[in-house]
Write a structure and sequence with these properties.
Blueprint: E1 4-7, H1 11-24, E2 27-32, E3 47-50, H2 63-73, E4 77-79, H3 89-97, E5 101-102, H4 107-114, H5 116-126, H6 141-151, E6 155-159, E7 169-171, H7 174-192, E8 197-201, E9 207-215, E10 221-233, E11 236-242, H8 249-265, E12 270-278, E13 284-290, H9 297-304, H10 308-316, E14 333-340, E15 342-343, E16 349-350, E17 353-354, E18 357-359, E19 366-370, E20 377-378, E21 385-393, H11 396-409, E22 411-413, H12 419-426, H13 429-433, H14 440-444
Parallel strand pairs: 1-2, 1-4, 2-3, 4-5
Antiparallel strand pairs: 6-7, 6-8, 9-10, 9-12, 10-11, 11-14, 12-13, 14-21, 15-16, 17-20, 18-22, 19-21
Helix pairs in contact: 3-4, 4-5, 5-8, 6-7, 11-12
Length: 446
């Protein structure tokens, strides 16, 4: 096991890793920007090191400064959390070049599965169902039109190197395809430093279902079943739940097994999520692979009892997976609500500023993952998520009722948050029935 781990992240996930390190008997070193210098969670780390000004490119995205902090603190390993540098193969390589273990996949595995075109090819080889579309990156509008006519409209243009909705365009005809191809490429170049885009068949009505995988350095990998992430806005998830309502274990089993084959084929170790879209016939098509721990990992932890963050650290240290696939059982139902400092009534405008009141829920089956306390100042420079409410119960109906109860216990002032929207969703008839598609929230907010 490692002696000392540097956490190359901030906020809720930094605190999550600090706690995992403490339980493993490992020292934690947390880096921070000038904007986060007063963050309470820094006091829980064994050491905290400032790595630069508030803008992420000068701190949390600055590889040389993070590596310098790691060398100063004499750490064995770096945990990247999610976001920032967590899916940058060059960061993983920089860690290895400096003889520091990267708690995640190898640069080669990350590059293969992180690039959507390369990942599609790997999935095809592993027998994972994929969307029909262009075999690789596409630049010529005429070629794009030929592909679209072959697979049928609507189609979607996607950035090969990114996610989160950037570099993504839905096209229902030739005119919109031609006009959007260059725009998507330009956006992808600006967001990810890579303008490559490709085309896939687009499902008008689909559910977003993802499979949680974890693998070790000994060639083993297991799945921790699925999560449903269909409640989303502009491709950003707001609610995640597990197991997925309306999908039988018999239907999801082969999808989970296919995801494991892909991870093993890529010689991948660490946590990964293989994301799929499911159509009205409950046929699955792979979207992408996230080569890091997900924001929504607590949902899976609640239904399986597996501590994903501690397991990531253990397998990075060379230990074998402590679980066999046959031991992973689904227990009850779990829901996660992402609490963002945003005002839904004003088109989700970010709400940076001081938090003068922060009263959170509790009680049976309620888990709060947050770095916020009364007096905390939400910075304007980073993602607006301030907390994750995770609720577990015996079944989905009880879980929804418990989540609604917990949401009513929040008392946050003066910033606006997405809490009222989450409560509205818990009370929505269609959501309670299950099976809502990825456009459900867009329709609800019209």
């Amino acid at each position: 096991m490692f002696t000392r781990i540097l956490i190359a992240n901030r906020g809720e996930i930094a605190l999550r890793v600090i706690r995992a390190c403490r339980e493993l008997g490992v020292e934690s070193v947390c880096v921070y920007s000038e904007a986060d210098k007063d963050a309470p969670y820094l006091k829980l780390a064994d050491r905290a090191i400032c790595i630069g000004p508030a803008p992420a490119k000068e701190s949390y995205l600055n590889i040389s400064r993070i590596i310098a902090a790691a060398e100063i603190a004499d750490v064995d390993a770096i945990h990247p959390g999610y976001g920032f540098l967590s899916e940058r193969a060059e960061f993983a390589q920089a860690c290895l070049d400096c003889k520091i273990e990267f708690i995640g996949p190898t640069p080669a595995a990350m590059a293969r599965l992180g690039d959507k075109v390369a990942c599609k090819n790997a999935a095809k080889e592993a027998g994972v169902p994929i969307f029909p579309g262009s075999p690789g990156a596409i630049e010529d509008p005429d070629e794009a039109v030929k592909v679209a006519e072959k697979i049928g409209y609507p189609v979607i243009i996607k950035a090969s190197a990114g996610g989160g909705g950037r570099g993504m365009r839905v096209c229902h005809n030739e005119m919109t395809l031609r006009s959007n191809l260059q725009a998507a490429s330009t956006e992808a170049q600006a967001a990810f430093g890579n303008g490559a885009v490709f085309i896939e068949k687009y499902l008008e009505h689909a559910q977003h279902i993802e499979i949680q995988i974890i693998g070790d350095k000994h060639g083993e990998a297991i799945h921790l079943w699925e999560r449903n992430c269909s409640v989303q806005r502009r491709h950003q998830k707001l609610i995640e739940e597990a197991p997925s309502p309306g999908v039988s274990r018999e239907k999801i089993q082969p999808v989970c097994e296919a995801a494991v084959r892909l991870i093993k084929q890529a010689k991948y170790h660490g946590a990964a999520t293989v994301e799929f879209l499911m159509d009205n016939k409950q046929d699955f098509y792979m979207l992408e692979v996230n080569t890091r721990v997900q924001v929504e990992h607590p949902v899976t932890e609640e239904i399986t009892g597996v501590d994903i963050v501690k397991t990531m650290i253990r397998v990075a240290a060379g230990e074998k997976l402590p679980y066999k696939q046959s031991e992973i059982k689904v227990r009850g139902h779990a829901i996660e609500c992402r609490i963002n400092a945003e005002d839904p009534a004003r088109n989700f405008m970010p709400q940076p500023g001081p938090v003068t009141k922060w009263e959170t829920p509790g009680g049976p089956g309620v888990r709060m993952d947050t770095h916020v306390v009364t007096g905390y100042v939400v910075p304007k420079y980073y993602d607006s998520m301030v907390a994750k409410l995770i609720v577990h119960a015996d079944d989905r109906t009880q879980c929804i009722n418990r989540t609604a109860r917990a949401l009513r216990e929040y008392n946050v002032e003066p910033i606006k948050t997405t809490i009222p929207l989450h409560l509205r969703l818990m009370e929505n008839t269609d959501f309670r029935k299950g099976g809502v598609d990825i456009h459900f929230l867009e329709r609800l907010l019209k």
